[in-house]
């Protein structure tokens, strides 16, 4: 995608050509769009990222915090900076499959995620939710996960509206470190 940010006549810009930031792209989104690394079955051996992430270090897995039944992890394809998910360790697809302890800890981690995001980034509000089933928009429907998306006044601009692209001003590793440091003790 080429987005012109000046009134100069459009010119052909080749790959690797210095363009004074007139070309904005998010090639990492193509992996999501094309369904790369989508699970083929119910467990880590079948490619479920939510089952395999806990075996990684927090830094390598972008895990912010771990509990006994759930963990908080940054979304690789975020809608906004700081977009994270609360995920049960146990591989379940539906919210009704959680036991009482998992349900309680998922709620507690959602509260802690909001507190950490407010402390670390001054979030003004949040979109919180889960898509149950692929027909409801779940990218990985086989493993339940709840999204916590921080929002700020005026955070929707021409990029997502016209360019269908979100600009994230921070590397995910830096965001993970910032949120882990701000995560409330418990």
Tell me what the structure shows.
The protein is of the alpha+beta class. The chain has a single domain (48-182), classed as HIT family, subunit A (2-Layer Sandwich). Helix content is 28%, strand content 13%. It is built from six helices and five strands, in the order H-H-H-E-E-E-H-E-E-H-H. A five-stranded antiparallel β-sheet has the order 1-2-3-5-4. Strand 1 and strand 2 form a beta hairpin.
Shape-level CATH architecture: 2-Layer Sandwich
Give the uncertain stretches in residue-range form.
1-17, 19-25
Name of the level-1 CATH class: Alpha Beta
Number of structural domains: 1
Mean pLDDT equals: 79
The SS-based structural class is: alpha+beta
What portion of residues belong to β-strands? 5-15%
Number of extended strands: 5
- As a percent range, the share of helical residues equals 25-40%
Give the helices and strands as they follow along the chain: HHHEEEHEEHH
Briefly note the CATH topology name. Answer: HIT family, subunit A
Major β-sheet profile: 5 strands, antiparallel
């Amino acid at each position: 995608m080429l987005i012109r940010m000046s009134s100069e006549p459009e010119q052909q810009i080749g790959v690797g050509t210095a363009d004074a930031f007139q070309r904005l792209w998010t090639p990492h989104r193509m992996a999501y769009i094309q369904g790369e690394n989508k699970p083929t079955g119910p467990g880590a051996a079948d490619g479920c990222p939510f089952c395999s992430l806990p075996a990684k270090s927090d830094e390598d897995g972008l895990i912010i915090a771990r509990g006994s039944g759930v963990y908080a992890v940054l979304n690789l394809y975020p809608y906004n900076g700081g977009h994270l998910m609360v995920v049960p360790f146990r591989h379940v697809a539906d919210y009704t499959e959680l036991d009482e302890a998992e349900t309680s800890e998922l709620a507690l981690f959602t509260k802690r995620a909001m507190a950490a995001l407010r402390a670390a980034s001054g979030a003004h509000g949040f979109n919180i939710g889960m898509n149950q089933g692929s027909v409801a928009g779940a990218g990985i429907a086989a493993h339940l996960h709840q999204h916590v998306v921080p929002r700020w006044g005026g955070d929707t601009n021409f990029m997502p509206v016209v360019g269908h692209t979100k600009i994230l001003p921070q590397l995910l590793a830096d965001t993970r470190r910032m949120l882990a440091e701000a995560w409330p003790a418990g």
